[in-house]
Specification:
Strand order of the largest sheet: 1-2-3-4
Number of domains: 1
Largest sheet: 4 strands, antiparallel
Number of strands: 4
Number of helices: 1
Distance between the termini: 82 Å
Length: about 100
């Protein structure tokens, strides 16, 4: 009787294992892509990143940290980024680097 119950439990857990491993793979891939563009550090509570201009070799020393979390289940978000309150509502700055001489 115990053997039958364990088989039923294992069979019921299989879809959750597959879903979890697929979600983990997507999360780590998105985290890798984020890491290629921003400085990320592992902290005691998770992963934090640096939004300061130091990542672009600027001497402007203001440090602004953001937090990276796994996306909420039931949504299409793979990961979520929590930005500090002082940065919310500000405009976006996009920098393009070109490989050509300056005239």
């Amino acid at each position: 009787a115990l053997d039958v119950a364990s088989k039923i439990l294992r069979k019921g857990a299989e879809p959750f294992k597959r879903l979890s491993s697929q979600t983990d793979h997507k999360f780590y891939r998105a985290l890798y892509d984020l890491r290629r563009r921003w400085i990320l550090r592992r902290t005691a509570n998770g992963v934090s990143g640096d939004l300061s201009y130091r990542s672009a070799d600027s001497l402007y020393a203001q440090s602004v940290q953001f937090e990276v979390h796994k996306g909420i289940e039931g949504t299409n978000d793979i990961l979520s980024v929590v930005v500090p309150q002082e940065l919310r509502g500000r405009s976006e700055v996009v920098i393009f680097l070109a490989d050509r001489p300056i005239k």
